[in-house]
Amino acid sequence: MSQFRAAASRPPMRSRTLTRREAGRTLLNAALAGAAMAAGLSAAPALADTTFPAKPIRLVIPFPPGGGTDILARLVANQVAQSTKWTFVPDNKPGAGGTLGIAEAVRAAPTGYELVMGQKDNLVVAPWLYKSVSYVPSRDLIAISHVAFTPIVIVTSASSKYKTLADVVAAAKTHPESIKYGSPGNGTTIHLAAEIFSQAAGIKLLHVPYKGSNAAMMDAMAGNVDLMVASVPSALAQVKAGKLRALAVTSATRSTSLPSVPTVAESGYKDVDVSTWYGIFAPAKTPASVVERIGAEVNKVLATPEMVQAIHEQGAEARLLSPKQFADLVDSDYRKWKSIVERSGAKVE
């Protein structure tokens, strides 16, 4: 592993259209409204261990380099490192829909020197899909800081014959299971989003799971799979470059990063509302003073206009939550997704 230190920060990009400026201001206002919360975290831990950290902090990333989780994890590590002069060592540990990396973090020493960038996929969805998953997030991990949330997007090659989601549905009804879609892996929220959409549309698609987003994206651009379902941060650069065509997002509202792309609900399938979130966690029993110190520094960075803009440019949306609010979100989603997974019929052996 090579140590990851902060690179020189770059100024936020100017928005190119009125829609993006307005979206950026909305996100900025939302994040700054939570700044008081972050400030409260900074002030609260009077008993925090001021000697921490005395060595580099390992940040486990449960997916391969280049995907949405990796992009956001390194962005946060970079900015916190610049702010604090701490050293982070990002460590990609992909496999089994991100569950291997989470399981490794659960087993890690609870010292604050072992953190993990988790998300809805591997924390609250995968436990109901994988028989081998035994961790419970509220029991085995401590929620430190909610980083961002993002819609999920359905894309196809720019040269594809599919111009709209309606084209996909029509073709799938004519030739069931003839349309292949790639995903970052079995058991992810993204996999489930595609299954939920398929059920709502009354079609059957053929799932091709990959080990992360990059391989799926390459095959989608080459036309080796008809569709790819991905987080917006994973696909945004290729959509903007004109190599992928975005057909729809699966969230209740449009993505502020892709404002011209309709939602699946707008396309006629009202019961589809799936998005994902990302956050930083520590192993259970990590000292409260250390958790508070890390959370205060992360939330302080997340509340800055520069970070809000940087996250937005990656296709995600910043949203500050207190540690309790974030823990409650994780626990609520964990319980809610049991029934969603059961209704989807999706299973991973």
TrEMBL record:
Residues 1-48 form the signal peptide. Pfam families: TctC (PF03401). Keywords: Receptor, Signal. The keyword Transferase does not apply. InterPro entries: BUG, Bug_dom1, TAT_signal. It comes from the Bacteria. Gene3D superfamilies: Bordetella uptake gene, domain 1, Periplasmic binding protein-like II. Belongs to the UPF0065 (bug) family. PANTHER family: BLR1237 PROTEIN, TRICARBOXYLATE-BINDING PROTEIN. This is Tripartite-type tricarboxylate transporter receptor subunit TctC. It comes from Cupriavidus agavae.
